[in-house]
Design a protein that fits this description.
Strand 4 and strand 5 form a beta hairpin. The chain has one domain: Ubiquitin-like (UB roll), CATH 3.10.20. It is built from 3 helices and 7 strands, in the order βαββααββββ.
Length: 92
């Protein structure tokens, strides 16, 4: 894969995802046209010490540029997007 086949996105981590990674946001390079549904695998590989991250991501929703995504497999990342991990929140 050539360098030009990579694009940068900004990932926002909230709640449990932020706790697991120790980050509130980071900018990462991903392959051009990466399906959003594959981003979780990249994040888990980037943060091997975040032992529960895979489980957290499986139970979370995604938003791209402040729009909630119902079907992550249908969204391709082109570069420049802000992707947020929206974890379930319990409360009372």
């Amino acid at each position: 894969m050539d360098v030009q086949d990579k694009v940068e996105i900004n990932v926002l981590y909230f709640a449990a995802a932020s706790t697991a990674t120790g980050l509130s946001q980071e900018t990462i390079s991903v392959p051009l046209n990466l399906p959003l549904s594959r981003l979780g695998n990249i994040l888990v590989a980037r943060h091997p010490k975040a032992t529960d991250l895979s489980k957290i991501l499986d139970g979370s929703q995604w938003s791209v540029d402040e729009e909630m995504v119902d079907e992550p497999e249908t969204v391709e990342l082109k570069g420049g997007e802000e992707v947020a991990i929206i974890c379930p929140v319990s409360g009372g």
